Amino acid sequence: MVGGKFVWLAILLAWILSITVRAEATQHEHLRFGVLPLQSPTKLAGMFLPLTEYLGRQLGRPVQFVTSSSFSGFMEKVARREYDIIYLNPMLYARSRQYGYRVIVKVASEPFTGILVVRKSGLIQNLTADSVPAGLRIGFPDPGAYAATVMVREYLDSIGIDVDRQLQVQYFGSQDSAILALYNGLVDITGTWRPSLRSMPEAVRDDLRIVAETPSQPQMPIAVRDDLPAEEIDRLYRALLGLAEFGEGQMIVKQMGFKRGFEPAADAEYLEVKP
Length: 275
Description:
Elements: H1 2-28, E1 31-35, H2 41-59, E2 63-66, H3 71-79, E3 85-87, H4 90-96, E4 101-107, E5 115-119, E6 136-140, H5 146-158, H6 163-166, E7 167-171, H7 175-183, E8 189-192, H8 194-199, H9 202-207, E9 208-213, E10 221-225, H10 230-241, H11 247-255, E11 262-264
Parallel strand pairs: 1-2, 1-3, 6-7, 6-8
Antiparallel strand pairs: 3-10, 4-10, 4-11, 5-8, 5-9
């Protein structure tokens, strides 16, 4: 009988211990910060790891930087709600809303536009429907790149250039690859956006120039999954808004290639963006 009591006591203690361990694991579980693969994983890590480390300290639990090998792969993970926090373009955010993500802040910097870039030594001096050479080669990062591809295509269409009929289109997988393809002569013109062009080595930047720019759209948002605790979302929101107000935060902002930090964003701003 005494032995039986010890057995039950051991079971009870093991059960209590398992609850405690599970509770501690839940409390300290990391948050996954998904970043759209705008650039190479190495470059993105250099840009966003300081931010995730800072946010982890502010939230009291680790924040893990993660990305994907492609825009489509990234959105598949968004659809499965694998990320707790996401940084992505306005078009893909509009799509992510159906999976339960809501914007909290957006990048506070220059207007969100696409740009068309050429080599300074190239033949293209200006871009009009009449000046486009036959068979012009154009590079894009990815079909889902909103500023660099979607907005640039819409701009070219608006000035009378039929991209698929008049140009030779190539996709290179990332902003960096598309810009370097132009620099190395693989294409004659490239669609991209200003932060990626700024992130290029000086020798590359000095060889290129912007020949056209699209109208602006809402800036790049950071959104959160709708099942995060409200108190944690509020702490995250405040940490991001205050990022550029102190020395370390200013360095983090500079590392990400932004001119400023983040500012409040409303879901309504993105409702007109085509998903």
